[in-house]
Predict the structure of RNA helicase.
Amino acid sequence: MDAVRLEFHEMGLDDRLLKAVADLGWSHPTLIQEKAVPLALEGKDLLARARTGSGKTAAYAIPIIQRILASKQSVREQDVRALVLVPTKELGQQVQTMIRQLTAFCSRDVRVADVTGKADLSAQRSNLVLHSSLEMLVVDEADLLFSFGFEDDLKSLLCHLPKIYQSFLMSATLTEDVQALKELLLHNPVILKLQGSQLPDSSQLQQYSIKCGEEDKFLLVYTLLKLRLVQGKTLVFVGAVDRSYRLKLFLEQFGIPSCVLNSELPVQSRCHIITQFNQGFYDYIIATDEESLADPAAAPQAGKGKKKKKKKSTERGGGTTKDKEFGVSRGVDFQNVANVVNFDFPLTAESYIHRVGRTARADNPGTALSFIAHTELSLLEEVEEALTGDNTGTGLKPYEFKMEEIEGFRYRCRLLRHDKDLHPAVVKPHLRNVPEYLIPETLKGVVNPLSNRRRRKKLKTQPEGVVKSSFKKNIPGKNPLRSFKYSAARNPRGKAGPS
């Protein structure tokens, strides 16, 4: 018999907070919210492990807002009462947006500020007096905080905090770094391990792999997108910044629009791209997930070579620097993502979980498709072993796809050399269209290429006189040259007749 679920209105929350929750369309709390919110309201320290997309942000935001509203009844001073630490700037803006939505009806009593990506923090120290006022500390995506190099920063921050405060650690995985943070921050915590698996089961998340050569990756992504075999909002992950631009320019040649998201873009541009993607302005993002930025020890084979390459890239082009706080696969809430495509396979199982976790969030279905080159087979085995040991009940199934059926597209892809220098794409109009003879026999009647529909629409929208009438046969009475009559006998001499 199923246990009775605890609802939001049974948690003793403020009416203004309940109204904001209702406006967000949350009819029931998620499992992490149901378990964490009552414990947090009791003042207990929490270490919560729940898979990505399970609602961890609201699980700590709701009790923070509730406690501040309760304290405002007796204390009216404006002080910093809660501090949320996140590893990336994108996640910082996301948390700010969530708290603003939850405080929509009490914004005069509870205010939130995002200080990531702003001016030098030394200029803001006077505004962050925490020693006497702080009551709650949150570390979100705690498994990434040390791997992003913030260990010393965190230890120096602790010197400015009061002796007694409530702490929350939220993480998708329980790594050694999280255990170290637990010893550093928590006091007799309640540990919540709510999900046996770090990814949804196969009824919600479908995971596929395609073993292919390096050159075939470009052929595959073009075919899957152009023939609409991959439909809906899609994140395509690559392993390097220049590779993301190369793939974008490649897709542009075939009239497939996409957007690039990487560590070299300014933080405001990155946040704007994510916002527009969530609002449905475009369907494809090519995202760079650089392991060297997130976890320097993740790729020991590349070690020194990566450092030299990174230094060279910063010197070339007058100082294009990479933001170490960039983390597109970690914690960022891309909304309604239907597919994740690993164009370059991740270097660790943890990175795979974070990437694939961008889809199938909450109760929505999703698909993950990974291209596996011959040099990446060992990485695939590592991921499959991790998923099996995690008792997910799922694995990467082979994608039923016959490469010989798309051989007709190969010559188109070879026209675009992938080893040439990057330059603005010169779009050739004929490459936008997919001729009927190129569509595989198994897909004929099922696939209706978008380009053909566009061509028909163009013919309908253009003026008939331009598109059709110019090539019609002459019809008596309709020819404008025959509508004029000229009679020299009727015109007086010296006057011009009609022409």
Remarks:
- DSSP finds 17 helices and twelve strands in the chain.
